[in-house]
């Protein structure tokens, strides 16, 4: 069954390479028949967090926030794609995530990390997991790490090493399973 999946990408840096990993995940999910939106903070230009979306009066929130809230509310699952900035998450990603909360509740989130070096952003993953849990998401046990991201994909997200196609399958299958299981559970009711 096709899922509605939102990929949230975290970098706004000049010359960013991680967008290639986000495009790869998007292509892979679409190839499995899912409807996928890629949220790029460069396109939405949210202000630094002052008011969360829920704190605005009805219809007073900026248009980009209204659009994201609608998109996030329809999502069956999320994939967060993040580089490692000084052992933590990019500020643009944290700012984007923090504008919302109820839109995330009881939904699964997969974590994709990357780096320009050999460790694939491994040190950022625990930070992301803690933040997503606080926002009400259930994170997958598996994560997908991408080493040497600049040399791993072309600009469209096509892998330059077939191992990425194989490695992504377990991650994608877990995301599909959690999305299905939590979707059924939400239909039956949520704790609050």
What is the CATH architecture descriptor? 3-Layer(aba) Sandwich
How widely separated are the two ends? 27 Å
CATH topology type? Rossmann fold
Low-pLDDT runs of 5+ residues are none
Can you give the helix content as a percent range? 25-40%
CATH superfamily grouping: Flavodoxin domain
Q: What portion of residues belong to β-strands? A: 15-25%
Return the CATH class.
Answer: Alpha Beta
The description of the largest β-sheet is: 6 strands, parallel
- Number of contiguous helices: 6
Structural class, judged by helices and strands? alpha/beta
* Overall domain count: 1
Mean pLDDT across the residues is: 96
SS elements, strand count: 6
Q: What characteristic shape results from the CA principal axes?
A: globular
Which H/E pattern describes the elements? EHEHHEHEHEEH
Task: Walk me through this protein's architecture.
The protein is of the alpha/beta class and 192 residues long. The protein has a single domain (4-188), classed as Rossmann fold. 38% of the residues lie in helices and 16% in strands. It has six helices and six strands. The chain has helices at residues 19-31, 41-44, 63-74, 91-98, 125-134, 163-188, and strands at residues 4-9, 35-39, 77-83, 108-114, 138-139, 144-146. Strands 1, 2, 3, 4, 5 and 6 form a six-stranded parallel sheet that branches. Helix 5 (125-134) links the parallel strand 4 and strand 5 (138-139). The chain starts with a strand and ends with a helix. The relative contact order is 0.18.
